[in-house]
Amino acid sequence: MTGTDVPHDQSARRPLVALLTGAGISTDSGIPDYRGPNGLWRRDPEAEKLVTYDAYMADPEVRRRSWLMRQKSPAFRAQPNAAHEAVAALERSGTPVRVITQNVDGLHQLAGVPARKVLELHGTVRAVTCTRCHARSSMREALDRVAAGEPDPACLVCGGILKSATVMFGERLDPQVLGTALGVAKAADVFLAVGTTLQVQPAASLAGVAAEHGARLIIVNADPTPYDALAAEVIREPIGSALPPLLARLGQPV
């Protein structure tokens, strides 16, 4: 997706709907969040080291444990839930839709949202990248190599260290992806923050940017967020039951 994909036709009958989605939209698919009361980082603080760039690059044992963790990741077995399906249905309805996601599970695309309309702020768990030559390949291929007996598979192109194509702790977000997300937030007529605490920057600031540029801000999250006061509507109901009727309403022509 590029900046040119953001619709600016003010005569369009349907508003541009942008969604910022966080871990909460995927919990119904069996993917636990990381920072909640039962989140992975609270249950196993050592697990955070496995996705910290400096530790990963410096220690082969950390990389070995990281590959074992990926083998067990629920993301590869997960299927889109009613919330993901509702977003895809909105896009199919003809409404201009852009998804900005903090998730790395790829479930928006699996549900049918075109990949060019999904901005993955934190990358994707479904691919790996070489830290030396930046060659990219599938996560499945890398995990098959681990299963075949390679505890720390190296890049097949240059022999460099492979890592998940996710943004690890200590890494910067892709500036192009972030810049496009900022453009989407500024252009949106309606901006929904779904299943995100809106506490992790710079992603959280997109909600404020959207509101400042005139978007109707709607927050769908179980707990209060720092941006609730800016929202035109705050919904505390479960995402899987609240989002489908909400998006169906937004998809009606005006």
From TrEMBL:
A Pfam match: SIR2
Keyword Protein biosynthesis: no
One MF term in the entry's GO annotations: NAD+ binding
InterPro entries the UniProt entry points to: DHS-like_NAD/FAD-binding_dom, NAD-dep_sirtuin_deacylases, Sirtuin, Sirtuin_cat_small_dom_sf, Ssirtuin_cat_dom
Domain Deacetylase sirtuin-type: 1-253
Keyword Calcium tagged: no
Matches recorded under SUPFAM superfamilies: DHS-like NAD/FAD-binding domain
UniProt keywords, alphabetically: Metal-binding, NAD, Transferase, Zinc
The protein's name: protein acetyllysine N-acetyltransferase
